[in-house]
Amino acid sequence: MFKALVLEQEDKKTLAGIRQLETSDLPEGDVLIDVDYSSLNYKDGLAITGKGRIVRQFPMVPGIDLTGTVAESSDDRYKAGDKVVLTGWGVGEGHWGGMAEKARLNADWLVPLPQKFDGKQAMMIGTAGLTAMLCVQAIVDADVKPEDGEILVTGASGGVGSVAVTLLSQLGYKVAAVTGRAEVNGELLKKLGATTIIERSVFEEPARPLDKQLWAGAIDTVGSKVLAKVLSQINYNGAVAICGLAGGFDLPTTVMPFILRNVRLQGVDSVMCPFEKRQQAWQRLSELLPASYFEQACREVALEEVAECAEAITNGQITGRVVIKL
Ligand SMILES: NC(=O)c1ccc[n+]([C@@H]2O[C@H](COP(=O)([O-])OP(=O)(O)OC[C@H]3O[C@@H](n4cnc5c(N)ncnc54)[C@H](OP(=O)(O)O)[C@@H]3O)[C@@H](O)[C@H]2O)c1
């Protein structure tokens, strides 16, 4: 028997409760994992509170991220005792996820945990950190170099944004951080490596098709009018990596930055990211993230506290990371 957070639905309401399950209850998969840690993402908050349509079938064990130790494997790539990390692939949405003491998963979804990280550190990085790394890699792959100019990061104090600021700075880029909470987070963003802090309101004014060229590249987690403004200010031949919609999923822009300034727009998805790219990204994270990253606020909670934290994260009341110890 093992303990799990289980989501059920009654009269279209999502109910979250702790249940004792048996290994035979777990869904099919090649690898049985003793879960060490999961983490609480905004998406998990939406799933657990039922505020967002994240869960595709009930009952569901939430948790889009997990780290753990292989207990049994019928796949040659993994053996008992191996440490692994999982993010995405619809786990915690359509396949039972990380908020349980055991999980059974498809071997194709797993990545060996880089030696430098322990389970808790990997969950402090989680989906948000992996996505940030993929965005940074997109800027590097677009051949935008530190000497070309500053890189703008929007939603800078969020999970993705704060790791993106850290990684860019570690790679020698000058980083301008756009945030709606400059007063609260400005100092922290500077500590992570931002050289310039810009109030989000500056980027919420309507964008002209083309504005003054100010940035060699950008990582955008916000979308909508903020992204439109960003695009209008990108230098000739610059590149923008986008992964999020914190400000909205529309994009009120024009073709002008693309056809007159050769600006390139690269979408970034971490959920279905193929194994090789995923493994390389985890490797790069282990090389680039400084020890100071792990000094940020991180609350370690038990399964019993998750429902309350899920409500808080959907109300914007959580600062820093929340990891769940199994
Ligand atoms: N494509 C993928 O694979 C993938 C993976 C992970 C996440 N995402 C998406 O990426 C985005 C960021 O994720 P996250 O984990 O970093 O989320 P997060 O921790 O909630 O951070 C989002 C940040 O965006 C800013 N923001 C919030 N509301 C805003 C608004 N109404 N208008 C403008 N800015 C706003 C805030 O930063 P400031 O206070 O600093 O302004 C906030 O901290 C989300 O939309 C998420 O769904 C995508």
Please characterize this protein's 3D structure.
The protein has two domains: 2-113 and 296-325, Medium-chain alcohol dehydrogenases, catalytic domain (Quinone Oxidoreductase, Chain A, domain 1, Alpha-Beta Complex), CATH 3.90.180.10; 127-267, NAD(P)-binding Rossmann-like Domain (Rossmann fold), CATH 3.40.50. Helix content is 28%, strand content 28%. The protein starts with a strand and ends with a strand. The chain is α/β, with parallel strands linked by helices and 326 residues long. The strands form three sheets. Strands 3, 4, 5, 6, 7, 14 and 15 form a seven-stranded mixed β-sheet that branches. The structure holds NADP nicotinamide-adenine-dinucleotide phosphate.
- Integer count of domains: 2
| Terminal CA distance | 14 Å
CATH topology type of the largest domain = Quinone Oxidoreductase, Chain A, domain 1
Class of the largest domain, according to the CATH hierarchy? Alpha Beta
User: Level of helix content?
Assistant: 25-40%
Radius of gyration (Å)? 20 Å
- The number of helical segments is 8
Write out the CATH superfamily name of the largest domain: Medium-chain alcohol dehydrogenases, catalytic domain
Largest sheet: 7 strands, mixed
Instruction: Give the uncertain stretches in residue-range form.
Output: none
Assess the beta-strand content as a share of residues.
25-35%
What oligomeric assembly is this protein in? single chain
Q: What structural class do the secondary elements suggest?
A: alpha/beta
Bound molecule kinds, no repeats: NADP nicotinamide-adenine-dinucleotide phosphate
Average pLDDT reading: 96
**What's the helix-strand series?**
EEEHEEEEHEHEHEEHEHEHEHE
What would the principal axes of the Cα set say about the shape?
globular
CATH architecture name of the largest domain: Alpha-Beta Complex
Domain Enoyl reductase (ER): 13-324
InterPro entries: Acrylyl-CoA_reductase_AcuI, ADH-like_C, ADH-like_N, ER, GroES-like_sf, NAD(P)-bd_dom_sf, Zn-ADH-like_protein
GO molecular function, one term: acryloyl-CoA reductase (NADPH) activity
Pfam families: ADH_N, ADH_zinc_N
